[in-house]
Amino acid sequence: RVVILFTIVAGYFVNLPFRRFFARKRKRKPISEKLRNYCKRLLLFTPYINSGILIIGYLVLHGYMFYFLRTGKGFEDLVSRDLFLQFFYVSLVAYLLIILFVFFWQKHRVHIVYLEHVFDEKELYSRLKYLRKGRISRRLWISSGMTTLLPLVIVIVYIILALTPIRSLGTLTEEQKNTLMGPYHAMMNTGDEALEQMFYVNAVDNILMFVGISMGVIVALIYIVFFVRWTTAGILSPVRELLYNMRWTGEGHVNNYTVVRTNDEIGELSEGYNNMTNRLMEYIDRISGMNEAYVRFVPRQFLQFLGKDSFTDIKLGDQVQKEMSILFCDIRSFTDLSEEMTPKENFDFINHYLGIMEPVIRKNNGFIDKYIGDSIMALFGESVDDAIQAAVDMRRKIIKFNEERRTMKKKEINIGIGIHTGNLMLGIVGSEGRMEGTVISDSVNLASRLEGLTKIYGASIIISEDALIKLKNPVKFQYRFLDIAKVKGKRESVYIFEVLDGDENNNRKLKWETRELFGKAVDHYRNQKFEEAAKGFGEILQKNPGDTVSRLYFERCHQTLGKGIPKDWAGVDIHENQ
User: Which of 107, 325, 441, 575 is the most core-located residue (most Cβ within 10 A)?
Assistant: First the structure.
């Protein structure tokens, strides 16, 4: 009783932390670090610990029984001692079977059920190095031995226990000898000494022997059911899990791993699979990083317009014709500003400035085709409304940017933006050794020229007539007719318009309030009524001295009145340098 109580109490206290751990995990309650570390440290050794507790009880109990057998105390006669001896042998074998059963049952549960709930992903990623390296063949040999040899041992033990030496009967009569030996008695010529060395099975021992053989068969069936199941589960479960993960990986999901449950060939295979998926992940991350880096140099929209899924699909000469809106933006008088800064300060300033502008363009469904020093060339494929809204937002960003520079007592900057909408060729140019995505079109050149005109007219945003016509929602923006201009590289004159939304609030408000007066003055100017035009522009300048366009027209009127109207005057302002 004491031994049984010891094994129960010891087993309870050793396994209590595991019961608490899994109970809290099932209920999704927090688990202390101390409890988690205890379970991690001892989980893999619980089969040995629990079996060890049983072995201690086994040794103590049978040592105590052996002591009684040796001393002979407590036995009334030899019969009771022989019965106790038989019980001793049966107990030895039965207890051994229980210990082996508990060990292998616990080991199966630990590796198949408990392992992944105690250890984290990193720890289950590879084989547990501090465990002895195993082999599947060894597991099969153990399983075969447990299902055949051990039940056979039971049968042999019971057969041995059923044997009684003939010498224990004393002197035998001929009739008794004939009963024991049957017809074989006549064949024995060695006398009684040979007969005394032999054994016989009495009626009671005969029953015991049949009971033992039956028990051996039953144990064999039990062990076959459990050990075959454990062995196949220990092999098939990891293999099925590995096959499932391999299929999952084959479908493109490489961010998974298989639990390495054993230290045998299957564990080695699982570890190899995990290493493979890890390298695939690293490779994919590297490729993804490269793709992200490529996107910084070649916008993803460029690929979409070319109908390509990946940068690897791009070939020299790929091209597509498309109507797009082109936006050019440039910092005015940047050369003077850069002379006041060191090369590093120039780079830092440009990167800071471009870092403010790029998100605005991206937010409005555009992408930057290239940077040209401090200039930006952006493309908008959906609508010109996006391009103009981006320009307005860029101007507002510059206003806030200048407020920050004022607080730091730094020189403010100004930008001019030109926008045109037209057909262009978008494609890949260069050579096999060096390729680049670009756009080629007269529309691109015109957008660049319009940006240059912002310096002459003092306008923040200038758009072409084609851009204005393509607006989906013209009432969204405030704009006014600016001029008819002829720029370098263009045979035909271009109607240009000023978008007012990008100006500072006060200047925009005054321009909008004087738009009708400005329109009449421009009409007078186009109809060669320069006195009326000059009067109108002068009236505008009295209300808004910051209207640089009106001032330009006002000076033109007085210059024409002073020199006379040229014979070839058509109201077109020629800008060969822009």
Answer: 325
The per-residue pLDDT of the chain, averaged, comes to 79
List strand residue ranges (DSSP E) for 295-358, in order: 319-331
d(CA 578, CA 377): 17
pLDDT tens by residue, 63-74? 877 777 777 676
Q: Which residue is it, tokens 């494929």?
A: 381
Q: How far apart are CA 166 and CA 175, in angstroms?
A: 14
Integer CA distances (angstroms), 89 to 77, 81, 94, 220, 223, in order: 19, 12, 9, 19, 21
Q: Is the pTM of this model over 0.70?
A: no
Which two structure tokens, joined as six digits, stand for 145? 């031995």
pLDDT digits (tens, 9 = 90+) for 56-98: 877 887 787 777 777 767 666 666 777 777 777 777 777 787 8
pLDDT band at 571 (very low <50, low <70, confident <90, very high): low
Distance of CA 107 to CAs 47, 127, 231, 260, 267, Å?
Answer: 5, 16, 11, 15, 15
Q: Are strands 479-487 and 573-575 parallel, antiparallel or unpaired?
A: parallel
Task: Identify which of 444, 331, 319, 442 has the alpha carbon closest to the alpha carbon of residue 379.
Answer: 444
Q: Which own/partner pairs from 242-245 qualify as long-range (CB within 8 Å, at least 24 positions apart)?
A: 242/266, 242/269, 242/270, 242/273, 245/273, 245/277
Q: How far is 463 from 467, CA to CA, in rounded Å?
A: 6
**95: which 2 tokens?**
């207890």
CB 216 within 8 A of CB 151: yes
**Cα–Cα separations (whole angstroms), residue 147 to 22, 138, 410:** 32, 14, 89
H/E stretch holding 415: strand 415-431
Angle at 434 between CA 430 and CA 438, to 5 degrees: 45
| Angle value at C-alpha 466, between 460 and 472, nearest 5 degrees | 85
For helices 548-563 and 442-457, the axis angle rounded to 10 degrees is 80
Distances (CA, A) of 563 to 325, 549, 551: 40, 21, 18
- Residue 335 makes CB contacts below 8 A (sequence gap 6+) with none
Paired tokens of 100: 């082996």
